Amino acid sequence: MPKSQPSQPSWLNLINIESVYSAEKQRRAFTFFTMISIAVVLISTLLILNYTVYATLLTVMLLISDVTLLGCAVYFVSTGRLTCVAILVLSIICVLCLALVYTGGKQNTALYWLMFYPIVAFSTLGLRVGFFVVSVLLAFTCFFLFGADIGQVSYGHAEKVRFTASFILVFLFTFIGEYFRNKSHLEIARMTLLQKQDAHTDQLTGLANRRFVSSHFLPLAKSRPEQYLPFTVLLIDLDHFKEINDNFGHDFGDHVLIEFSNMLEEQLRSSDIKVRYGGEEFMVILPKTQLTVALSVADKFREHIAAQTITFTQQQLTRLTCSIGAAQVTKIDDFNKSVKLADEYLYQAKREGRNKIVSSN
Ligand SMILES: Nc1nc2c(ncn2[C@@H]2O[C@H](COP(=O)(O)OP(=O)(O)OP(=O)(O)O)[C@@H](O)[C@H]2O)c(=O)[nH]1
User: Per the database record, which ranges form the GGDEF domain (predicted)?
Assistant: First the structure.
């Protein structure tokens, strides 16, 4: 029976679903900025129009909040750190709401302003932190409305009960909405990742396929050359594979390809990228590896393969050899040129009798 594949080859970690996450980041950033803009305009207007009627505490709180909100927006633009800034902003607004409830605002209309809070808190802070800050606001508001007299204004009984009931309903429905939005976002992210991994995996051997090299590896190596360059490309072709198919059948041929892929995984570093490049042709990319070092790795591998016997049933077993062409890549733009060179060396190895490595060295 074919050996089982390693559970998660490291090249799979190079496949990202940044587009899914960046849409989510954009949504949160957009909500955050809209909230800050509205809050700053609103607070400034309230301050200008009502500073004569507001309690001093409320005026000072509004002023500090206005300046801090602007500072947070500037900090976010310059650092891109949304979560900690959003927590700070929502905490300020929470305190502001409580100051409003405590003092009553203009003509005791403070309670109306609290209704937006759950919506903004959940959409910028997510489920858990959002739930926490909204709960804190609700708890303190209930204390001011129904608790002991500590100097806060008093609201009518009907107003207090209706506010609390409607706030809890907004809280509940926003929580449910956010819970399912988050769940479907995670599911979309999971499915996108699985689909992308599947589209870049060779179905027979579980190695990366050729598309992975062009759509993921090369862009990644171009963006982080210090992690990958210089690297060596090995093109490896099984020798006389047609004879194996002809002598033992296609299933045995498939089994040989799987066993060969397992040996690539076992014998080479996990950071080396092993690709099924075509039928019985494989590509191995050895990151941060000069040609001379790669040649000794490849030669050891070639010897290892030649020493193995691949068994399918007791009657079906074969020896296997491979030929290898190797070339070094120092610039990503030269990748195709180097692959072409490695291909020429591979066919030179075949012409020269197989079971050997040819390179420019
Ligand atoms: N079993 C199996 N065979 C495959 C697969 N893909 C390609 N092949 C076979 O691989 C064989 C390759 O044959 P050739 O290109 O003549 O190469 P070769 O026999 O290895 O000869 P040299 O490369 O010159 O040593 C063909 O018979 C293909 O049908 C596959 O997925 N499974």
Answer: 229-361
